[in-house]
Amino acid sequence: MMQVTGLEKENSINKPRPPLVKASPIIGSFRQFTGDVLPFITETRATYGEAFRLRMFGIEMTCLCGQDAIALLEDNTYLRTGKSMHVLDEALQSRLPSTFDGPQHKTFRKVHFQFLNRRLEANRREDIQNCFDRHTDQWQVGDEIDVLHAAQTQTVDVLSNILNGEPFPFSGKDLALVVHTLIWATYGHLPTWLALGNPVFRSTQKRMRAHLLELVARVRSNPELAASTLVGQYLDFPPPEGASGWEDSDLVAVPYGAYLAGFDTVASAASFMVYQVLSNPEALAQVRQEYDELSREFPGPVDPMKQKFLRAVFLETVRINPPGSMVIRYAERDFEFAGYSIRKDDEIVVVIASDHLNEELFPNPNVFDPTRFVGGTEETVMLKRHVLPFGSGNHRCTGAMVGELMAVEMISRWVNQFDLELALPKGKLGVVARPFTQPVGLKFKVLGRRTN
Fold it and tell me: How many CB atoms lie within 10 A of CB 363?
């Protein structure tokens, strides 16, 4: 239950501010914040409590942890996203992103939820798995595969096929440049003109935009393509307030979203999944046993929803290494949190993964144990509610269901079709946040193709 008390401004100035975390005076906790951030946040929370401040390069952020912080996100009256969506409006030359913060917010989320659901995966399962196979058919015995790169390449190709109706038309290098520039422009603290002024970015984005404008035009002119793509779903919904209709330039943001959503988050989750499965022989054996039993019982491609143990592996993986541990918001008004004063316009970091390493909920929290989430007991259902890999509240990722299924299907294909062996350059897994949490230098070696 949320216990947040709204305060009048004159009263809030008498309340203490959350404590400032001790760190070097200039760069602050930057190194920890851009490394494996969740253990750092968990340790800091244990020292300072549910609210504390971090200062890096002169920028101060207030971190809020625990279920009351999650309740703030879901309440949607104390926090706002700030100018982030309007930055995307400018960068993509589209009016669409900011509608997700405006009065039509629920309408546009409804567009996504109606399309990005389990039914989409079920209807396109054969296409999805054939797409994965086109990539993995190129793997040869002895190949060393860069796991994150392979996951990113396959994720965006699948999403491009099922959401945009075409194979992924760009290079991974081009997409990485555009996606990461847009993320830093949106959530970083650089001036917009500087973040978006890189001439290489501008040239690359211009090429991508020209292609996506052609895609939008094809969707408009082809009813069958409109019915089967995310862009097409918008054609039947009202345009932004004050506009007489959707312009092609507005709808360019929709196919961009397919790439922005999956390139880092889904691919990162899948990369950590394969690391955990290959690091734990018992888990690998159980994943394969489940897959083999389902293959014998049901004809055709195996349903990821039925791979319950592998879905438990997904949850346990993103509990330990969530793609995003926190979200950035701004205080809409003065309020009190955990006995401290939060003031209007304070920059707030809500740690959505703050309970992921909570020993009371997850004994031995750093130990990989998928059985925590196996079974439909009240306890497992409760634990699942504490794992939030794709956000929470009104701005939770609308592709969360599809994202999980994509990660499960990808790793299922990899480990059930191939014998693989981890290849870690320094003997252990490195983790960084760029800004999403990713493995560093993770590779595996292809030992051979399995026969079922």
Answer: 10
pLDDT in tens, 301-318: 899 999 999 999 999 999
Q: Is 451 exposed, middle or buried (0-12, 13-18, 19+ CB in 10 A)?
A: exposed
Q: What is the DSSP letter of 143?
A: P
d(CA 409, CA 389): 17
- Give the C-alpha separation, 403 to 270, whole Å: 10
Each residue of 366-423: pLDDT tens digit? 999 999 999 888 899 999 989 988 877 666 777 788 889 999 999 999 999 999 999 9
Q: CB within 8 A of 139, min separation 6: which ones?
A: 145, 418, 446
Residues 6 or more apart in contact with residue 237 via CB below 8 angstroms: 107, 108, 111
DSSP category for residue 174: H
Cβ neighbours around 119 below 10 Å, total? 11
**Looking at the 3D structure of the chain, how many domains does it have?**
1
Residue holding tokens 């984005």? 205
The letter for the amino acid at 433 is A
The type of residue at 86 is H
Greatest CA separation for the chain: 71
Residue in the structure block whose two tokens are 């793509």? 229
- CA 406-391-174 angle, 5° bins: 55
Domain span at residue 395 reads 5-449
Q: Is 438 helix (H, G, I), strand (E, B) or coil?
A: strand
Q: What is the CATH number of the domain that holds 378?
A: 1.10.630.10
pTM passes above 0.85: yes
Contact (Cβ atoms closer than 8 angstroms) between residue 335 and residue 6: yes
